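Re: S-adenosylmethionine structure - here you go.
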Amino acid sequence: MTIQETVPSAVQAIDRKIVVQKLLSKLEGGSYLEIGVELGQSLLPIQARQKHGVDPNPIVPMRHRIRMFMQNLLSRNKVHLHQMTSDDFFAQRNSILGDSKIDVTLVDGLHTYEQAYRDVLNCLDVLSPNGVIVMHDCNPPSARIAFRARSHSEALKEFPADGDFRWCGDVWKAIVLLRSLHTDLQTFVLDADFGLGIVSRGASTSKLSYSREAIEAMSYEDLAARRTTLLDLRPASSFNEFLASR
Ligand SMILES: C[S@@+](CC[C@H](N)C(=O)[O-])C[C@H]1O[C@@H](n2cnc3c(N)ncnc32)[C@H](O)[C@@H]1O
């Protein structure tokens, strides 16, 4: 018996890979886009007919790159690694994607709210009508993890003694921006895996009314004091309801 079989499905923890894979299955989706690939720990195991990973500095091990190359030769399922920033990828989207649309995207690149927000808006341009955007690291549990920096290495310099330092940055503010400025989007956060933002098309049912300036001025203390309200933070189990509604 595997460990997984001993855990009732209702209490299984969920993470970004499970959420993405369930969405792809439910939407009968064939295409997946991941912004920020790093080692490929999500891009590689996720199953889709077309996978696109975008990262200016991917560190996918050579054995996996060879496997990807072989897969592209031998299988109908293709995986493409684009070594560039997300801004460059979207600037070239017509030549890279042509007319094809993306069913599910994972936004997990540079962890500043400006970039995460821009990535979401750009993803909407290539998303299929029922497509879903998943955003990682939207619910940082401490001010340290929410530290504002221009890059992971800059954040790491601030906490040099911490070997397994986790950096969410201020991606959470992108959620507040989306909920305040985009009434044509439904945006909420699942309380799982450092906060999984879920963005889909449809009239917003829980709009916030902050200005961009007010959001920019917010601090981690504001988030800590009003986490549920600012993020529309929902229990991980509510993902099943969302999935059933698609
Ligand atoms: C947290 S890691 C991604 C983890 C991966 N999605 C996973 O689930 O295992 C963030 C990655 O974003 C990449 N990144 C940084 N700036 C970026 C940008 N402008 N566009 C795309 N990716 C970027 C970094 O190189 C890094 O590999």
